[in-house]
Amino acid sequence: MSLLPQLQRIPPACWLGVALLLMLAFAVQVGAMPVHLNDWLDLPKMLDWFVQDKPTQTLSAGAHVLFNLRVPRLLLAVLVGASLGLSGALTQSLFRNPLAEPGLLGVSAGAACAAALTIVILSEMPLAVIAPVRAWLLPLAAFAGALAVCFALEQMARWMAPGSIAALLLTGIAVNALAGAVIGLCTYLADDEQLRSLSFWTLGSVAGAQWLWVWLFASLLGTAYYRLRHSMQTLNALALGEAAARQIGVDVPGLRKQIIVWVALLAGLAVAFCGMISFVGLIAPHLVRLWVGPDQRRVLPLAMLLGGLLLLVADTLARVVAVPAEIPVGIFTALIGGPFFFLLVRQARSQVR
Amino acid sequence: MHPKPSVALLQLNDIRLSLGSDCKESQAPKSFKLCISPGERLAILGPSGAGKTTLLRLMALDASPIKGVVLFKGRTQQSWATAELSRHRAVMPQSCQVAFGLEVKLVIALGRVARRSDPFVSDIVFEAARLARVDHLLSRRCDTLSGGEFARVHLARVFAQLWDTRDGLILVDEPLSALDLGLQEIILKALDRFATERQHAIIAVLHDVNHALRAFDRLLLVKEGQLYADIASKSQAVPLFESLYGLSLECLRTVDDALVVSPRSNRCGVA
User: What pLDDT, on a 0 to 100 scale, did the predictor assign at position B249?
Assistant: First the structure.
């Protein structure tokens, strides 16, 4: 598209990229366990391990923390933040409103609810489910939960009052309350071990990062961006409203379905692996829109970058504020995001009627 | 490639309009048929709630009729792909809000969103904007525009959509109601010039009888969901206007012999 020359698009992305790299370099050094230069020298061993898929040489303790705990955690924070940023930007363009966000609308809660149900039901089942299946069942359930909430929301939004964000947010409140109740019930029924994993979902954390998750999110995000790169201008068309978008030749139902599936995948899997991390999907696209304007072709990629940066910063804070203990990052993003949401609502007063 | 001029651009066979759910089968409006040729200028007139916008939506293939068939270039709504249809017919809605405050040039470029590769889009956007007199607004955000400016942006979007096709169809719903007198002239002229150059037909829902008489060559009078009359845009139409709106009208001639209609001042309610 020659309207916005390629060149014009580089500076903000560059800024964010450099900031992200600097933040990564900083974040990898700080933490409960100091990282020494020597630990970096174990990198070849680590690469060996990747290639041959088994630990051939033993790593030093520092290197183990660095390569098996900290680096995957930082990368996961960036990737999950990017997923949340992208899903937030997509949700906002789907509902034509800057206040829409997977967390606020109950998509994340739906995913968490499905995940919690899975944890409790799985343990009640008489036959033992083998570990790998168990590991994949959870993300699958979370995705299904997110997808169900997304489709329900879309129907509701149409049925209640098309274009009214108040109706949408109210539906989100209802979904959040319902999901909260189900999670509460699961907590009541759960035993000690299940309780720990349940509280993990409601708080949100990237502490359990594994390399497998990093690869999973990297490929998910890559695929999402690749599949959506041609849809960005049609997403702009949605801003004209459904009828006008159809008149200029956009297959609106198809586009909506595509967006919903991606939102559910991105938000649902983020919940499945890292719990409920709220507000990143709201803040990142909004800041990007303030910065470069509302063109989705720029908002989507930049919201990904900024979402990654935001969650990385939040996670680093969560790690270092109370060393050696750490605070779940979901608490941090909610602490920052809540007031931000109030600011947004104040700005968009005219729309919240 | 293009259909021969003799082929109707738009055909409505045995159409019945649905006006809300309260009309019973026995009182349902009579069905009617219509045929519109390429390049025609057609105005739809009628009192509020008569079904003008419903008729326009049928003609735009936005909705399917409850009864009858609508054929655009000989094909039904189902056989047109959304993207393909958008290259042959454009709709300028009565009101259309743009979320997020997109830039004007982006909104105009959206008229061409259905084209896979579109190398000249920036030129077309600029030319379309110039024709609709919004070229000075290209970098403005849509939420900072006045009603009249916004209407012209949408007009430019319609121009961009049908810029490089011929024998298309432009449908406009009350395009002039939000505009001042000068802008009404500008828009009517721009629309006329654009359509003439490309042999596009124009179908417009109008409130002002005088606009219809001056710029359109065929009038569809709609009342209570029925096609009340389908006549040429001449002085013979004036008695029909009187019964359509329930008004007594006076015919005046301007110096250049154009017909102007005005309600009589002291006698009302003839119908």
Answer: 84
Report d(CA B143, CA B129) in Å as an integer. 17
Digit-coded pLDDT (tens) for A228-276: 988 888 999 988 888 889 899 998 888 888 888 899 889 988 988 888 8
Q: Judge: B121–A3 Cβ closer than 8 Å, yes or no.
A: yes
Identify which of A2, A241, A248 has the shortest CB distance to residue B122: A2
Distance of alpha carbon A285 from alpha carbon B10, whole angstroms: 44
The pLDDT score that the predictor gives to residue B143 is: 85
Distance in angstroms (rounded) separating the CA atoms of residues B204 and B212: 9
Asked whether the whole model's pTM tops 0.95, one would answer no
User: How far, in Å, are A73, A103, A307 from residue A224 at the CA level?
Assistant: 21, 19, 15
| A295/B106 CB distance under 8 A | yes
Q: Which two tokens stand for residue A186?
A: 């699961």
In a mutational test of the A interface, the residue from B64, B97, B110 whose CB has the highest number of chain A CBs within 10 Å is: B110
3-state secondary structure A68-129: HHHHHHHHHHHHHHHHHHHHHHHHHHHCCCCCCCCCCCCHHHHHHHHHHHHHHHHHHCCCCC
| Residue B253, both tokens | 């001639």
Rounded percentage of chain A residues whose pLDDT exceeds 90 = 19
- Tally the domains of chain A: 1
> Measured between alpha carbons, how far is B112 from B124 in angstroms, rounded to an integer?
9
The region of weakest confidence among A5-19, B55-69, B201-215 is: A5-19
Residue A19 tokens read as 């900031």
How far does A10 lie from chain B, in Å, by closest CA? 19
Give the largest CA-CA distance in chain B. 60
**Conformation bin of residue A10: beta by default, left when phi > 0, alpha when psi is -120 to 50:** alpha
Q: What are phi and psi of B78, to 5 degrees?
A: -65, -30
Structural tokens at position A74: 């930082």
A1 lies in some domain: no
| Structural domain contains residue A278 | yes
| Residues of chain A contacting residue B144, judged by C-beta atoms under 8 Å apart | none
pLDDT tens per residue, range A84-108: 999 999 999 888 888 888 888 888 8
Question: Is the Cβ of B198 closer than 8 Å to some Cβ of chain A?
Answer: no
Complex ipTM more than 0.90, yes or no: no
CA-nearest residue to B171 within chain A is A247
Q: Tens digits of per-residue pLDDT, B54-79? A: 889 899 988 888 888 899 998 988 89
In sequence order, what are the beta bridge partners of B201?
B169
Tell whether A195 is covered by a domain.
yes
Query: Under an 8 A CB cutoff, do A2 and B121 touch?
Result: yes
User: Looking at the domain assignment, is residue A44 inside a domain?
Assistant: yes
Q: Average pLDDT over chain B, rounded to whole?
A: 84
pLDDT (tens digit, 9 = 90+) per residue, B76-109? 888 999 999 999 999 988 777 788 888 999 999 9
| CATH number for position A284 | 1.10.3470.10
Q: Which domain holds residue A277?
A: 6-351
Chain B residues closer than 8 Å to A164 by CB: none
